[in-house]
Amino acid sequence: MTIRIKSFQHIILVLSVLISLHSVSLGSLLEKYLDNSGTPSYEILSLSNSPVGGKWILLNIQSQTWRGITWNHKVAVYIPRRLPHKEHGIIFVTGSAPRDPLSRANEYTLVAESIGAPFAILWDIPNQPLFGLREDALIAYTLAKYLETREEDWPLLFPMVKSVVATMDCLQQIFKDQGLNVEKFLITGASKRGWTTYLTGAIDKRVFAIAPIVYDNLNLQEQMKRQLEYYGTFSDQIKDYTKLGLTELMVKNDEKIFEVVKSIDPYYYDIKVPKLIILGSNDPYWVVDSSEVYFENLAAPKYVLVLPNEGHNISNTVEIFNTIRAFFAISVSGKYPVLHWKNEESSIVLETEEEIEYAKGWYATSNNLDFRKSYWQSVDLEIQNDGEKSVVKFNAPDAEGNVAMFIEVRLIKEGYTLSLTTTPRVLRK
């Protein structure tokens, strides 16, 4: 069949349709799953008052039935006594629920009060063990089953995302019953839950901001190639994927894995919501400058906080939640700080119009490109201000080996202090 295009406008229209179809196809497996995964339900398990005047509500949410398995989640919801933010909430996505969820939830009471917004802890992402497996082993197994069967609902990230979407559905009804009209959510979570955070931000318009933690793995195929370049092998932390041949297929850009990668890799989605990406400098899952292969292509506003001498299980949770609290308030206001940085020959230069409280340069050295066990040191940096903007420059220190480095600044914005960093870079000897 021959299609004749009679005008330039027709050409533009056809191109627009083709581009639109391509964009939809990238996430079509996930979107298809969400469209056919049923309606969630919830049960209120308990109501209790906090010592500072807020209210805890403990729920069980049934998010879906995935491959014949019903998924249930414990969810602890906190409504602060002081509630300046009545239309925006936070969902903290985490792993398996403890035996006494409310005792654990109470540890977050002061955090939630300081944020001043409805706050929910969503456990059991994913439901596990399944098939005798947990965490990465479970995700890898489901990806392998997809490749084996081509049954489109196999990838575990799909029900993980659905769980967050279902929780937003249920929370909106809960909040409505409490006289609140919460329309928007900030989503945050760590590791696999950080992965889930990205994908939820990509597909649900109720998400107004995301704060993924220790998921430095966007652009999967390039990440796997970078691990081979830096380590000579794949990180032992992702051995569950390596054992099933998934990482090798990614390196080869094998067509067998192409479609599912495009559906589970946040890099291929147009994620427009503001992002605060929180990382550990010594995370053994990734290479030190993993963000180099994706950060530039993310839509703004986008920010990074690299925590020095922290691995995958970050201990400095106070810094994390203080930064998320500030990011939440700034995202609600829409008054985002603007930072620009560039890598020069042997330095990093950062510019901003914001007020900088202090600036530090962080660096670590290594005889090779493996910085997982390197110790990070800091130097105070001079802040140059010409009345319009502040400039910070970090020159790489003299070292015998390779140097990894980034700049940290503490800004004052909308009455909050906010620690942010540049993405790490590596200078090779």
UniProtKB/TrEMBL annotation:
Classification via InterPro entries: AB_hydrolase_fold (IPR029058), PhoPQ-act_pathogen-rel_PqaA (IPR009199)
Pfam family, one: PhoPQ_related
PANTHER family, per the entry: AUTOCRINE PROLIFERATION REPRESSOR PROTEIN A (PTHR31497:SF0)
Protein name: PhoPQ-activated pathogenicity-related protein
Organism of provenance: Fervidobacterium gondwanense DSM 13020
